[in-house]
């Protein structure tokens, strides 16, 4: 990261300082506000470079920003654990009279957790309890077949990378959103989103392999009272589900669980909308991200109502099979639409996407949401 590593070290040091200084009741709110404020300032710097200066940002800066987003997950997860009583507080609050050396000894485990290298590069969110159990556990504790597990992951990555080469050739050979006409835009959207998904799948499995090689993978089991290990990539479910709500829970699973715990479970009004809005904030508040995540929230809400009413009225198995097939295709196309909206960086590209035939698919769910919401009110 070069000099941009400072962007990661400063919040890590400040987070540990706040954790050791504040009481359990105050630690989460203070660390959350500081961490998100720091991350937002860094994202504003990225916006200034991309949108105002019209320049490509430094790759080192982008790498530091990515690590900073992952650091935010660990900081807030740790502060929530302390606030909820899952972890003993590092300090007794302002009345603590421990010596400086004792404070440093208490702070070192937090530093090592926030800055351990697999989590800086990526990978599923690892809780502090799991990290501590692995580090303090016996050195001879290892899976029976680590080579087999890593070999299988390596073969998966190789297969995904080969598919990426094929899909990239397909995307380059076809027209783009600027050149496509009518129904051709649907094929362009589907193929481009497929390339994005293959990239995500490959990176997630690679991150999971790194955690496994470092001793934090699912092969090492689970200690009593420890949060279970959840890999980010559940490719089979993501590609076969006919429900947008299930896709949202399985896409980047550890991040989805973190968002649910951090935002959804603490929101009293519109928890779903607040969760997706915070996700857009955490990702950087690019125009496409704001539009895409808010659209995703509406689609999930519509998904709940559509499938609830479908269970009431669709009884025969041929109709169920037809319904599942149609909703699967519709789900995949809506997800492709959202993915393109989130990934595009320019307002012109987002406008082209919204003005294409692809907008028909989310509009269908929006119309059904309005109709079924009114009918649900009548039923109630």
Automatic annotation (TrEMBL):
Transmembrane segments: 321-342, 348-373
Major localisation: endoplasmic reticulum
Membrane topology: Multi-pass membrane protein
Annotated signal sequence range: 1-29
Record localization: Endoplasmic reticulum membrane
InterPro entries assigned: LPLAT_7/PORCN-like, MBOAT_fam
Pfam name, any one: MBOAT
Keyword Membrane: yes
Keywords for this protein: Acyltransferase, Endoplasmic reticulum, Membrane, Signal, Transferase, Transmembrane, Transmembrane helix
Protein name, UniProt field: Ghrelin O-acyltransferase isoform X1
Organism encoding this protein: Equus przewalskii (Przewalski's horse)
